[in-house]
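Table S2 (text version). Query chain:
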Amino acid sequence: MGPWTLAASIISMIVGAGIFAAPAALAASVGPYAPVAFLACGLAMSMVAICFAEGGSRVPTSGGVYGVIEAAFGPMTGYVAGILLCVGNVLACGGIAAAFGDVIASLLPQQFAAGVRVGVIISFVGGMALVNISGVRHGARLVGATTVIKLFPLVVFIVAGLGAVHPANFHQSQILNAEGVGHAIILAVFAYVGMESSLCASGEVIRPNRTIPRALGIAMASMIVLYVLIQVVAQGILGSALASSHAPLADAMGRVHPALRALLLAGTAISMFGWMGSDLLGSPRQIFAFARDGQLPRILGRVHPRTHAPHIAIICYAAIAILLALFGTFAELAVLSALPIVSLYTAGCAASWVLVRRGVALAGPPLNFPFIGTATVISVSSMLAVIAMGTRQEILALLCLIGGGVLVYYLLKARAVAVNQ
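Corresponding C-alpha cell output:
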C-alpha cells in the first residue's frame, strides 16, 4: 500500500456510526466548545497512531494492538488487553444499537417511541447476528457494501450546511464543569477509535518509514477537519436544540431542506448497519478464540456445523449488546466503552516504545520514527488524562475489569498446570 491507500483505509475505519450521534452528546456536555474537544483529541490520537504504526511495523500480527502488547509485556498483559478490547467492543455495540433505536423512534409519535425503540434494537442487533451466523462471507459482503456509502452523506452535510450556519448559535451560555468536560473528551476519543485496525499491517506497505507517517498525516488531518466541521455545522444550525436531538445531523439538514434530512437519516442507518455488521463479524470471533484456547468457557468455542461460524459466541455477544442498548443510552455506553479502549491504547503505546528500546523487528526494517519517545510521552500522558476524566464509578469499574482479568488469567494458568500434572 502507498500513502493514499493506507490513509483511505485509516479514514474508513475511523469514520463509523458514532459520528452520526456524537455531536448531540458533545453539545450536551460542553455546548459550543465541542469542536475544541474534537481538535484536542484528534491531535492526541495522532500521537497514538504513530506509536501503533511503530509497534505494528516491528511485530505485525493479526492480533493487532493487543498482539503488540503481548510481545512487549508477556501473555498475562496480552490476555488482559484482549479482555479490555472485547468489553470495550460490546459496550460500543450496545451504544450504537441504542443510538439506532433512538433515530428510528424519533420518526414516530411519542406514544409509540418506547415500544418501537425496543423492537428496533432487538431486530437490528439480532438481524446482524443472524447474517454473521449464516457465514463469514455474508457478513463481509454487508460490511463492504456500506464502507464507501457512509462518507457521502457527511460530505453533503458539510457542503450544504455551511451556508446555513448562524453565528449566534455559538454564543449561547454554557456553564462548564469537570464532569461535562471529561465526558466530552471521552466521547471525542470514542469517535476517533478504529485506526489501529488498519495499522496492524504496517509491515506490508511500500517504504513504511516514509509511507506510514505520510498516511497518518493525511488521515488524521482529514479526520480532524471533518469532525470539527461536522460539529460546527450541527451547532451552527441547531443551536441549543442540538443537545437534545436523537438524530443531530438529520435534524440539522431538515432545517436546510426536507430531502437532505431523509438523506442523512438514510446515511445514519447505513453507517450503523455497516458498523454493526463489521463488529459482529470480528468481535465475537475474538471471544471464540479465547474459548478455543481454554481462556473462556469451552461452549463459546463451538462452531455451527453447516456454516462453521462461531454461533454461540455471536449469540452471546449480540444478547449482551441488546441488553446494554435497552437499558443504556449512546452517551453512557460510549463513555464506558472508551475507557477500556483508552487503557488498551495506553498499553499499546508503551509497548511500542519497549519494542523500540529492545530493537525488536520481526518483519524487516521497521518504521524507526525519529521522535517515537516524544510521541510515546504525549500519547501515554494524553490517554491517562482521558481516563482520569471519567467519574469515580467509571474508573473503579475499569480497575475492577483489569483486576478481574488478571485474576482469571492466573486461575486459568493454575488450572492448566494442575491438569498437566
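Notes on Table S2: The chain is about 75% helix and 0% strand. The mean pLDDT is 85.
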